[in-house]
Amino acid sequence: MFYRQAGIHHTTYRGDRALFPIPFERWQIAVLLAIALAVPAVVGPLYMKSYVLPWLIWTAAALGLNLILGWAGQFHFGYAAIMGIGAYTAVHATLNGIPFEIALVLAGLMSTAIGCAFAITALRVRGLYLALSTLALQFVMDWVINKVPAVSGGTQATIQAPQMRLLGNPVDSDATLYYVALVWCVLVTIFMLNLRRTGLGRALVAVREKDFAAAVIGVNSFYYKLVAFAMSSFIGGVSGAILVFCFYRAVTPEQFAVNVSIQVLAMVIVGGLGSIIGCYFGVAFILLLPGIMANLIFAAAQAAELRIGVELLAHIPALLYGVLIIGFLLFEPLGLAKIYSNARNYFMFWPFGYARK
């Protein structure tokens, strides 16, 4: 019905390799882009700044981590440190008079350089040893940010981000900040969509499945792992810079601590490894669901006239949130993207369900 493929004939290689060969999917993407562009005019400023804006930025960051974890199959427990490097680089660059556009590129390049420097040594090992090596990156960067005044201004110091300027024009409206985050998220999404169709993307998948077998057919696993770390670090660095300039408006060491790395990792795993749309779902689940659940529980308690203590009311959402994650991982370990894929496959054959057999 929705994903009808009758009458769709691929007569050229270009048509066969299109990103969205089914007409319904192209209309779906067009509608979603139209809704995204209309968000500042439809959604209130509070909800846009509190929910939609961070969702877009963290989705871009999760896509960058998914490139390492889902495409190349390499653990990375220090992604928040990569984002922090980009954030501090962009802030210091703009404070020294460098234009914001160049500061973003510098943030990505600095994160790439430091991420690759650790990756060269970390990629000599695999599995849990690689996870510990990337975790060491997180702790080293935490120490540097906290103990080196030239970077963060000292322990527990806060550096205010200067006003963003695009092409020399000051950005002072929430709608413009939202569009900056939207453009970056869309660019990362398009890059990831095209990456999996290239020789580089296929080589990363080969390394993920079995690096020894990939080496037998001529794929240099160390080189492609290093390239994956470089691309992922660049996306993470720019995402960290945009997060500071568009959302936090200031940078502190606590914003990129080890718990943030675990949070981003949870976004990717819950959304689905190797899935692009799964990153959107995973970020929404991890980032937005706790606040929504807290509001629903508070409204239900008021409607039922229940006298619940403030402390208990604050911990109930976290309890239900943890139960949801555990239950979700037990019953659908492939992530939210698998649920979406199942629904898509159902409508692709509906109402002729017997065609799947």
What does this structure look like?
By secondary structure, the protein is an all-alpha fold. The protein has a single domain, classed as ABC transporter involved in vitamin B12 uptake, BtuC. Helix content is 73%, strand content 2%. The protein has 15 helices and 4 strands. The strands form 2 sheets. A two-stranded antiparallel sheet has the order 1-4. A two-stranded antiparallel sheet has the order 2-3. Strand 2 and strand 3 (169-170) form a beta hairpin. Helix 3 (45-71) packs across helix 12, helix 3 (45-71) crosses helix 13 and helix 5 crosses helix 6. The longest helix is centred in the middle third of the chain and has 28 residues, at 221-248. The model has no long low-confidence stretch (mean pLDDT 82).
CATH topology: ABC transporter involved in vitamin B12 uptake, BtuC
Low-confidence stretches: none
Q: From N to C, what is the helix and strand string?
A: HHHHHHHEEEHHHHEHHHH
Structural class: mainly alpha
Query: What is the strand arrangement across the widest sheet?
Result: 1-4
- Strand % is under 5%
- The radius of gyration over CA amounts to 22 Å
Q: How many strands?
A: 4
How many structural domains in the coordinates? 1
Number of DSSP helical runs? 15
CATH architecture: Orthogonal Bundle
Give the rounded overall mean pLDDT.
Answer: 82
**What best-fitting shape do the alpha-carbon axes yield?**
globular
CATH class: Mainly Alpha
Helix content: over 70%
The end-to-end distance, rounded to whole angstroms, is 18 Å
How is the main sheet built?
2 strands, antiparallel
In terms of quaternary structure, the protein is single chain
